[in-house]
Amino acid sequence: MSEQRNIEIGEKLRAARLEKGFTLDDIQQSTKIQKRYLNAIENGDFDQLPGDFYVRAFTKQFAQAVGIDADELLVNAPKEVIEPTTDLSNSRTDLDNVTRTGMDMEPTKADKIQSFVPKIIIGVLVVVVLLVIWVIANSLSTKSNSQQNADNSSVSVSSSKVNKADKVADSSSKASSEKKPTKKAKSEDKAKDLKISDGQVTGNETSFNVTGADAVSKDHTMVISSKNRTWVTVRVNGSSVVNQMIQAGDSKEVSLPANTTAVKVTSGFATGTSIQLDKQDVNIPDSSSLTRNYDFNFAAGSDAKDDN
């Protein structure tokens, strides 16, 4: 094929490509022919192609891509182009799965980069997986150590609390054992000091005189018990301090402060009601009244009225 004929073919292909609005990159994408060969064809520089076989094959593919009849385009081509001899001794298959003969076996820069991409991706994935495994293992190890430290701390705190509780309990026990004789002695002394007269009955009222050196100056404890379910009220120096129901078999303890001079106890079901004052049983006379009032008059020394 003469040089002039080559230039005419290239110009026709370029004109058809531009008319279609295609770029060389578009033609390369559709034909899988490298752009440098397409550019050589358009310039009529067919010597840049790898051989006569590729001159016809590439030119025909180019023509089909831009809508030109390839046979008509190559009608005046020399016989070696129309019926080229094919030498496959140096053939190879490129990465685009196209077999090329007589071409330079040296891979292009793009081929080299493309061949390395899968390896790079695999290497990055391996590194990422190893990093994730390391992070998870490190996290589990840290969590395990924290849990172990927390358990040890909990055991230490619990042991400390137990020891402290034992010490407190021992101290409380000792203190109680030391204080009990004192309280008991005080109660016994207080009971000895108090004198409670026999009750004087007037209707549903029963009066008692409480005398002693400390009858007024010290506090006292009154315990009201009942064998039956009864309503009980207690007034100390005119002020109500108890107003509640006592169940059968239960008792109510009332603290009487120092300077108490009058206590009035009312029982709604007097039968079975008993009273203690500083652990002394109060002698309650029998009475047929269902509801009874018990009046206690406190006086220091022998100032209380003695009705006996």
State the gist of this model.
It comes from Periweissella fabalis. With about 300 residues, the protein is α+β, with helices and mostly antiparallel strands.
Structure description:
- There is one protein chain.
- With 308 residues, the protein is α+β, with helices and mostly antiparallel strands.
- Among the domains are: 3-86, 434 Repressor (Amino-terminal Domain) (Orthogonal Bundle), CATH 1.10.260.40; 195-300, Sandwich (Immunoglobulin-like), CATH 2.60.40.
- Helices cover 46% and strands 22% of the residues.
- It has seven helices and 13 strands.
- Strands 3, 4, 5, 7, 8, 10 and 13 form a seven-stranded mixed sheet that branches. A four-stranded antiparallel sheet has the order 9-6-11-12, with no helix packed on it. A two-stranded antiparallel ribbon has the order 1-2.
- The chain starts with a helix and ends in an 8-residue tail after the last strand.
- The model is unreliable at 304-308 (pLDDT under 50).
- Keywords: Membrane, Transmembrane, Transmembrane helix.
- One of its GO terms (molecular function) is DNA binding.
- It holds the Pfam family HTH_25.
Percentage of residues in DSSP E strands: 15-25%
Helix content: 40-55%
| End-to-end CA span | 162 Å
Count helical runs: 7
Q: Can you write the helix and strand succession as a string?
A: HHHHHHEEHEEEEEEEEEEE
Q: Write down the overall geometry.
A: rod-shaped
Kindly identify the CATH topology of the domain at 195-300: Immunoglobulin-like
Could you list the spans in which at least 5 consecutive residues all have pLDDT below 50? 304-308
List how many beta strands DSSP finds.
13
**What's the overall average pLDDT, rounded?**
80
Please identify, by name, the CATH architecture of the domain at 195-300. Sandwich
Query: How is the main sheet built?
Result: 7 strands, mixed
Class by helix and strand content?
Answer: alpha+beta
CATH class of the domain at 195-300: Mainly Beta
Organism: Periweissella fabalis
Biased composition (Low complexity): 144-162
Protein name: Helix-turn-helix domain-containing protein
Biased composition (Basic and acidic residues): 176-196
